[in-house]
Amino acid sequence: MNQEPADGSTAATKSCLLQEREQTADMEETQFDDILDDWFIESLRTYKDLHEYHLEHPTQVIEWTSGKTVCVAGYASSKNEILELRLPLKLFADENKGLCAERDFKVINGGLADGPVRCLRHVPGTRCVVTNDGLSSDLQVWDLGGDDSDVIRRTGSIEGRRRFSEGGSRIAAGLSSQPQVLHGARSSDVQLTQLISGQILYKLETDSADPLSSLHFVSDAVFLTGCCNGKVYVADTRTSAAPQISPPPASSGESVLWWTDASAGLSGCRILRLSSSGQAVISDLRNLGGAMSLARLDIQTRRCNLDDVRVSWAPVLDDCIAVSGFGGAVQIYDTSLWKAELQEAQPLFEHRGHAVSSESDECVCVTSHVWHPERPRTLLSAASDGSIHVWDWVDQSAASC
Fold this sequence. Notes:
- This protein has a domain of 186 residues: Methylamine Dehydrogenase, Chain H.
- It starts with 6 loop residues before the first helix and ends with a helix.
- The chain is 12% helix and 38% strand.
- It has a 5-stranded mixed β-sheet, with no helix packed on it. The protein has a 4-stranded antiparallel β-sheet with strand order 1-29-28-27. It has a 4-stranded antiparallel β-sheet with strand order 2-3-4-5, with no helix packed on it.
- The chain is mainly β.
């Protein structure tokens, strides 16, 4: 027969359980501190610069508005902040960095968006950004403010060709005499719209309506449309000619998503496609049907949404790409080592700072990253815990030579 323990026994049992929980918590905290200490010591050797900032709410968008400022915005279902941040001035000090007083990110302009911000692009030559909420294909136009105001204000909107679309619109903004944006949710929806007048300057005519993962200008007039199924369209806004089409790369995975990026310059433009199964394919813009090189990346393949993953060519560092969204790290790969036969690829560098330094109880994932437009090894990255890091990594292979 089971008997209820006496009150004293119950109290003793509760006390023991409480002590065990406290000891477990102390051990976990000690382990976390040890991991953080080890990573900090390692970072002294592997980073030239590393600065951290914490947003009130996480962001999926990081967009350069100048060489020293970026725009970020939240993606919660309710109201969200849209902020322009100035990077730590210490990052740009060539000498005597320790004497630089400005060591933190600084909010210089801010405003509120009524809904989530899933896509954001700065329009070159202006103080405007264009956003999409991921709920429809319509765009929102914002004034970032200036010397006379620190308020980011919504100034207008641009109607998309497809009113409602799962995943929302992708946006690209290129250099032109008149501010204009390229946007669309599907391959059949893509159009070029003049920002001030709202006039439609170009429409991409296709027979299919493939959901988009990306839009990129590769010159003032030529753009690339990357579809979620891996198909790529290349079109010229100056002509009515049919776009060049590249079929999806062969893939061994099922229900595979693809993300696309293009390196700058028509003469040497390379197209990178990355699948959710970790397969990367590089093609030449002039021969999209053939693969220059293939690789299977060392990533944590998992079920991904369209907005999770980022893949990007380094703008001023030959052959390097950055990949994020498959976990808590940003990986750098050197594609010059890849060949025409499929091979396993290891990252040249891996930024694990978000996952290592996070105090969140949940698994931290990187939500976005961007290369600095001029500094070869400087990147910004954001994570699901609201952290933003700017880091300048050291190429250990070059440093050891």
